[in-house]
Amino acid sequence: MKRLLILGGSVLQIPGIQKAIEMGIYTIVLDNDSEAPGAKLAHEFFQISTMDFKKVLEIAKKKEIDGIITLASDQPMKIVSKVGEELKLKTITYDAALKCTDKGLMRKALKEKMVSIPKFLVAKNFQEFREYHLQFQQPFIVKPVNSSGSRGVQLVKEITQLERIYDYSAQYSSSREVIIEEYIEGEEFSVETMTYNGETKIVAITQKKTSETPFFVEIQHMVPAIINREQQEVIEEIVIKTVNAVGIEYGPSHCEVKLNSRGVFIIEIGARLGGDFISTKLVPLATGYDLVANTINISLGLKPNVYEHRESAALIKYFYSPIDGIYKDMLSIDVIKKSEYFYETNIYIEKNKKVNRLKSSNDRIGHYILKGENSIELLNEVEEIDSNVKVEIEGEIK
């Protein structure tokens, strides 16, 4: 029986644990939280930080693992790569992991390979931020160099309290380094890929919708995106160029792009599966491609499965609050469950609990997923649902 080490036992990792067990693979899960949901699912569990290289390597050697993965988390990829290099497993290299988890290194690598990206500068501290921001026209984007889930990302339209702007983004960066970058107008997409032995396959292009400025939190994803053949080819070409530029040779990647009249711009890339249920639910529902199973196969040194592509569509919409307040109820939620396109719905918070204004993905309070024959019918259904289903929030907490 093959032995797979999975870094992380959170909800994000559960699809990987479940899929590996379904595939007849012995699962070993590590997490710093002894109460992590994945702890009870795995064949073996160890309470170890996924960022502790020495201890992770010790377990990997002791258990004689055949592969190592983490699903939708960025930072553990550095440990995955170091263990992979040490044990000669099919993982990305440590150099590629660094480029995919540090947005500054990522942009430098893409710039060197002539990949189209926004103008950017990395500020190591407030003094550099104060100096560098003068080189950008407003509005511009400020974000931490190593964070995810929209945490710390903000659009700066006017300079009022410069130190406060810096501190908001820097608090989410382990080094307090931030990136200042040109704001790119346009439609936003993400692209899921799978790479084996340096050859990359484009699996799906997701059309994204984000909240209003200044925080740009993702509130809707749809597969496939509604684009024409020319747009699809341009996006696919630049994404493959991006995968090669950061040096991903094995495994999945999740690339975020923007498209406008000037062309396609790469916003960032992660050497992992896409989060927000894109990889675990939307892509399989819409295409039939099992990204999780193929990520596991590649980690074990096996070729990705060949599959018969299915032309369907899937969409996820998130519930959230526009203010700080108390969550009371989800009005008319039965409208969703009665939809002919209904797949699932989930509310993450109990009634009468405090909720925050939407600033990052952690502030979202639930979701629903629809599946159907094509994307246009799902968009029409979302419009109908959203005209009936309302989040009831009481008051505003000062």
Automatic annotation (TrEMBL):
The keyword ATP-binding applies. Pfam families: ATP-grasp_4, LAL_C2. It comes from the Bacteria. Residues 107-300 form the ATP-grasp domain. The keyword Transferase does not apply. Keywords: ATP-binding, Ligase, Nucleotide-binding. SMART domains: GARS_A. This is ATP-grasp domain-containing protein.
